[in-house]
Design brief:
Blueprint (H helix, E strand, L loop, with lengths): L8 E10 L5 E10 L5 E9 L7 E10 L3 E11 H6 L5 H8 L17 E7 H11 L5 E11 L2 E12 L1
Antiparallel strand pairs: 1-8, 2-3, 3-6, 4-5, 4-7, 7-8
Amino acid sequence: MVFQIMSKVEFTNVECITHDPDFADFDYCLLKSVNRTYKYLSLKVKLLKKPITKIKINVSIFQRLNGYKPFLYNVTVDACKFYKNQKSNPVAGYIYSLFRSFSNMNHSCPYDHDVMLDKLNTNFLDTKLTEVLPFPHGGYLFHSNWFAYDINRATVNIHIKIS
């Protein structure tokens, strides 16, 4: 007899915080539930001082266990260098693969346009978070800080549940 275990990823919340509204501002940051099985996340950040030639991103993953505790990764990457050689950092490459095909952040610096994440759906994440690198069931927080010119300009927190 063969058993197949299925996991399901679900978005529970998203928070987009601008630390410098003169530099960048979120046009929208939302979760949309189309029906019971199809949910997606979209966000758009308007860059107000273009072009941007120096970007760093810090991503931390937390697991919810009596509060959020560090889990698996806390990585900081120079985004301009990373896009030139994506194999240079496998952890950053894996995290980037979670949203690469849904974003217009797919080239090296400079950035002279607004940055968007368009309709990142849970069906896509199901495969990445349960088959490619199996995460245990539970609640998670993908916490990211976005730095331009070594100043924290924005924070994006994505809360998910794997059941």
